[in-house]
Amino acid sequence: MRRDGPTGRGLPRRARARPVLLGLPLAAIAGYIASFSVSWGPVQWVALPELFPPRVRAAAASVCLVFTWLFNLAVALVFPPLLAAFGAAAPSSSNASTRARKLIRCGHDPP
Questions:
Q1: 3-state DSSP assignment of residue 88
Q2: Is 61 domain-assigned?
Q3: Which of 1, 3, 28, 86 has the fewest other C-beta atoms within 10 Å?
């Protein structure tokens, strides 16, 4: 009798996940959210309205934030097909080349 369940009984030994690895993705996501929310996350909500004069501040900040969300949506929709088509090497090499150009231009790797 085959019993599949949260303990992994009935699955081949190589298919069973180790308990430590089950929490790793959750910990990584929580770490990303925490670091983003204490660094660049809130900056757009504070800095964008300060760019505009008071009489147009609300409307201009609203337009900027709509574009921010639209670009986030575009990245979320485009990235998975690109990842499937080119693999994980394409985003990694793009990031590496951008950081190399910054290093050459600035003499150090700014954040």
A1: coil
A2: yes
A3: 1
